[in-house]
Request: fold
Amino acid sequence: HSVAMHHDADEAVVLVEAQLQHRQAGLHGNGQRDAIGDDEALRAAGVEPLPSWRFYGDYHESTGRRGALQLWKAQPRPTAIFCCTDYIALGALKALQEIGVRVPDDVSLIGFDDIEAVRHTTPGLATVQQPLTDLGRMAAEILIDQVETGKREARRVIFPTALIQRESVAHLKT
Reply:
């Protein structure tokens, strides 16, 4: 298993494309605005994202269920589904298994966050890990700073991510 460090989630999407050689579909959480960075990153890597390989909803398992079923009907079918949260990926995994789709034989599935539950699925769910403790610590520091100084400036902080490969991903032959 290889683990690669990257600077942000957009780069993690490209990592999945490059390392695993998949065309991919995204299940995005909060609307089209979330997909813009992914699309730009994919285009920079020479991959044109297809609109039929996108699904928008909230961050719950039900989004994953609906999105996976919709994406499975797309033509051409994607070879991998990238979910913006592990909860969405868990819903997608369940829905795909219920209709007889074999993960990863028929389609690979990747989540985001590396929550504990994804380590116990069958197959084990590949995911993009992010430093949640560091994210929380930085958010608290920014909030305290804003309260103490009275300044409400937006900040962009980029944390490293890592692709954690598990059994839900098939490597395509080149």
